[in-house]
Design brief:
Layout (H helix, E strand, L loop, with lengths): L2 H11 L5 H20 L4 E3 L3 E8 L2 E4 L6 E4 L2 E8 L1 H7 L16
Antiparallel strand pairs: 1-2, 2-5, 3-4
Helix pairs in contact: 1-2
Amino acid sequence: MRKTDLINAVAEKCKGMTKKDCTGVVEAVFDSIKDALKRNEKVQLIGFGTFEVRERKERKGRNPRSKEEIIIPAMKTPGFKAGKALKEAVQPKKTEKKSVKGAKKK
């Protein structure tokens, strides 16, 4: 799903809003998340997940073309951890365990 697909889905669910209004809402949500991360704040959306800034330490790497060893500097990267409800939504429902062939029953 691309951003335009997301905007269309929001417009479909919010009957009283135009597609232009939905575009503004989606952009505002993304901008708000980005601004909070710039301030090094966590964005916790209960049931959905948490956006946060993660610190990556300096590390050694290798230039794939020259095979030369290089130092990759420490940096901050955005991260996302899925919430319980989101994990459950994408995980197929568990079915009863099937018995293993040849296993002895007690």
